[in-house]
Design a protein that fits this description.
This protein is of the alpha+beta class. Helices cover about 60% and strands about 20% of the residues. A hairpin with a 2-residue loop joins strand 1 and strand 2. The chain starts with 8 loop residues before the first helix and ends with a helix.
C-alpha cells in the first residue's frame, strides 16, 4: 500500500523477505475477499500484476484510522497514568 503499484508476487516476496508461496497464500486470501485482483502483464505473459480494488483501498484506509485511533488512545492513557 505504501509503495507505488503495480506489484508482483516476486517483487512482494523480495521486498517483504518471505517466500513466494507464503505471499501467494496471502494474496489468494486477499483476492477471495475482493481486496485485490490479479492481472496479466501484457509484456510478459508469465508475470502477474496485483492491483488493489476499491474495496481493498477502503479497507486499508479504515484499518489505518483504527490503528491511529488505538495509538492515540494508548498514548492518552499513558499520559494520564504518568501524571
Amino acid at each position: 500500500y505504501l509503495t507505488p503499484q503495480p506489484h508482483t508476487v516476486r517483487g512482494l516476496s523480495a521486498e517483504l523477505g518471505i517466500a513466494k508461496p507464503a505471499v501467494t497464500r496471502a494474496l489468494d486470501r486477499l483476492s477471495s475477499l475482493d481486496y485485490l485482483r490479479r492481472m496479466p502483464d501484457p509484456d510478459d505473459k508469465r508475470s502477474i500484476y496485483l492491483k488493489r480494488t476499491v474495496k481493498g483501498s477502503v479497507f486499508l484506509s479504515d484499518y489505518g484510522e483504527l490503528v491511529t485511533a488505538s495509538i492515540n488512545r494508548i498514548a492518552a492513557d499513558q499520559d494520564k497514568s504518568s501524571s
